Amino acid sequence: MSFNNLDALYRRVIMDHYKNPRNKGTLENGNLTIDMNNPTCGDRIHLTMNVENGIVTDAKFEGEGCSISMASASMMTQMIKGKDVETAEALSHIFSDMVQGKEYEGDLDLGDMEALQGVSKFPARIKCATLAWKAMEKGLGKEKE
Q1: What percent of the chain lies above the pLDDT cut of 70?
Q2: Where are the domains of the chain?
Q3: CB neighbours (10 Å) of residue 144?
Q4: 52: left (phi over 0), alpha (psi -120 to 50) or beta
Q5: pTM for the full predicted model
C-alpha cells in the first residue's frame, strides 16, 4: 500500500471515530471519574471507568474538542476495556511514544490507535491526542492509592 493510500486510510479511521465515537457517555456507577482539559486549545474530557479486581471492565467518555482529541478518546476506551491495569498503562506509554515519533516493536495489537501515529508530524497536536490517555493514567493512579 502506498504512503498516500495509507495516509487516506488513517484519516478515514480518525474521522470515523470522531463522527461515530465508541463508548460515548457516562457510566452511572463508574468507580473512577476524571476530568481533564487542555487549556491551550480548549479540548476537555470527562472519563468514567470501572476497575474491578485490577481489570478495566468498562470505560466511557464525554467531552469537546478537535477530531484528534475525540477520536483518540474513542480509541482509548476501546483499547483498555477488558485489559488489566498494567496493560492499560503500558498501552498509554506506547501510545505516547508513538505520537512522539518513536517506533513500537512489541507484540501488543495497537488496533485503530495506529492511525494517530501521524500526529508526530504536528507537535502542537500531541497534547490533543494524549489527553484521554493522560486522564486514564490519572484515574488508574487513583485506583492504586
Answers
A1: 93
A2: 3-144
A3: 9
A4: beta
A5: 0.92
